[in-house]
């Protein structure tokens, strides 16, 4: 879709401003029922579009993402535009600096439409812990968009943005992408700069694109995966992926993680089996593999992520920015009240959990042990990649949850992250690709996991499936959009 | 019972790198509140630290100067605690893998004080209480610190002070910190306990936080020692707690329990990568290190034969030491070393109004000119007095030695001429001569003064005195 739109702009069949207006109108029309946007930057978007149009009028060339309307998850810092992480505690906070990824896109005159909905501080898998209320699934608004990057997935699926950037700590890009029938790429830890991404769990967080096609994910990833000196854990991508997405995959070895497949419900299993058949027909060698330690990945995840979150979220005290309660007796009273009122239930739960596992006397039993298991999981993946090029799993064991379902049982909610979490634990890249619909008409996605910095490979494998199926699942989502612009 | 004092120190030294430890902001002291800040050092959501390589180099230099081993692998950790001057609610520090470890410092009484570790960390901001409100200045937030942790090896409070003075001198020497206690770039926490003399089992300790002057340290340790002894003598037990020293009343008092019972929930800082310092890098830093104070002191005493106290004054500041060494570089005699030391300590130092000026040592006399002056003095072409006066003029006017001393001056005063002038002095000051003869020893001074005035200071005062005395004895006044 990005290519087609870029061509339309270059051929002046449509102006950047027209395109931006089209999207803004669509948001105003459609988003009342979806709630995918929490902040609209209309003025800013139109100004960017005008810059692009004047460049085009002057006969200047434009780069691939230039003039394309897109969106950012509300935890990516944007100078002058609110960045609230959909938390009450950051109400009124307007950053004074840009996240690295946004800086790249801004320099390319990408047209930022607004900030999209998410679970509060990216903690959740439904988008419903957002202080603005959850984003809805465009396929059926009685179902959630998923989370935490639910707003981006919902917006992209509904044609309210060409693409969007989300963040993925335990599946927060791939799961909503899967729920909404879009493509979601979680890059290798260290491929995309985290500078300006409001931290949830620093050793797991990673920014990545949600798009309608694999090709688009590749194009966006290639633009944002630059080395950044401000984030010393970021090396950038080792190569541009786009030139590899059409590579021949015959003979490629795909391992299907059977533990994950067994957890999935019948509709998901059926769709994924069809995917496997498709790959076999394309000449790939498919085998079932076992990743036994992944059983423990969830426990590791909830210990490590909560521990880091408890530290990362300590700074929200109402002193320097964000909201502060109006009456208090002293410093401690002010912090207690501000945090009690500012944070939602899920965030509090994780801060408490994280504080507990790092506490004196419990550190060895939880945090230290979790790191030992983390190493074991990493080794297990490494061993698997000695025999296989990529690993295939369902993205989620089920399709989208019904709205309100999550609040009842947090633990079963945590369990739904089983297929995505091990990837973050091991710092690997993975992409979720739509592959069907369940009996309720909700999208199903599968996940391709690769070795560190092998984004080219997983996008190549993913794109081959899209080519093979003539992107029929994508077309059903977008209704052929944007070709009728 | 006789008790013995046991003290251990945790010393914080602010490093004088140009920029902060995790961002590019200046580390300059003072400045309008919150003007030396950026999104990183005020911990805005989404910002990330980037370790300043200079901080590691400075800390390694400090470690080497204090005879430490340098860890090939170390890492940064988060120390979580809530205080308004700490904008991220955690301090990035080093917990279980410090950069430097196992060092020591040698005191003048021959005792060795062990250094357990030196680690790098960031400083916090500053609270300003004003008119019932509290303001926060984050300028200091993110300024690099090293924390030097000593072993509990001190047995006397004077050892503590000597150690700190030595630390201060050493850090200034290697130019990693200005160590100004009044500006807070050197602060320390003092752990105090007492035990029966001769025992090897330490008593329960208390920690006196944030001491910022040698004098207060002396008083606080003394007070705390006596307090603990009193408790033990009356059959009680010392409680392990954190104290604060109230300088105005001269007592220590416990800090509130909340600040005492910290669980810092240390864990590895996920936003930074591990620190690796290779042997080659350590060698490179070592090769650039200047000669340290203690080694200079030894050399001045043993090689130049300067008295210990004078040597200490010369070696204390690097610029003074450099001027001294450059000036005597080509000198041949021990007398010249001594003359040079005397001229610096008596003439040059008297021009300075503060220790700071002394340290900066900004004077208009070059070491080359100083050497010329010393040579004239050594060859007895000018008297000590003349040397002093010439140096004073040089300092005042910035002139060179030979702008002040003319060829004629250098002719000196021959012994015949001196005899003549001495006779003249006695003739014109008969009263003084008589006074001296009748036992008033001091009367000779005015006669010498007359001679010196007549010779414009060129005469050898000692020789003149001998001649005058001889004549008085001969002529029987």
What attributes does this structure have?
heterodimer; A: 485 residues; alpha/beta; Amidase signature (AS) enzymes; two-stranded antiparallel sheet; 17 helices; disordered C terminus; B: 477 residues; alpha+beta; Arc Repressor Mutant, subunit A; 18 helices
What would you say about this model in short?
The complex is a heterodimer of chains A (485) and B (477). Chain A is an alpha/beta fold. Chain A is 41% helix and 14% strand.
What's the SSE blueprint?
The complex is a heterodimer of chains A (485) and B (477).
Chain A: H1 2-10, H2 16-34, E1 37-40, H3 42-57, E2 69-73, H4 100-107, E3 111-116, E4 136-137, E5 140-144, H5 150-157, E6 163-167, H6 174-180, E7 183-186, E8 207-211, H7 214-224, E9 253-257, H8 258-263, H9 266-281, E10 285-289, H10 297-312, H11 331-342, H12 345-358, H13 364-387, E11 390-394, H14 410-415, H15 421-426, E12 430-437, E13 443-449, H16 455-468, H17 472-478
Parallel strand pairs in A: 2-3, 2-6, 9-10, 9-11
Antiparallel strand pairs in A: 1-3, 4-5, 6-8, 7-8, 7-12, 11-13, 12-13
Chain B: E1 3-14, H1 53-65, E2 69-70, E3 73-74, E4 77-80, E5 90-93, E6 100-106, E7 112-122, E8 126-130, E9 133-137, E10 144-150, H2 157-173, E11 186-196, E12 206-211, H3 214-233, E13 242-246, E14 251-254, H4 257-260, E15 267-268, E16 275-276, H5 279-287, H6 293-302, H7 308-316, H8 318-328, H9 334-348, H10 355-360, H11 367-378, H12 384-397, H13 401-404, H14 407-411, H15 415-428, H16 430-437, H17 443-454, H18 461-475
Parallel strand pairs in B: 12-13
Antiparallel strand pairs in B: 1-10, 1-11, 2-6, 3-16, 4-5, 4-15, 6-7, 7-10, 8-9, 11-12, 13-14
Helix pairs in contact in B: 2-3, 6-7, 7-9, 8-9, 8-11, 9-11, 9-12, 11-12, 15-17, 15-18, 16-17, 17-18
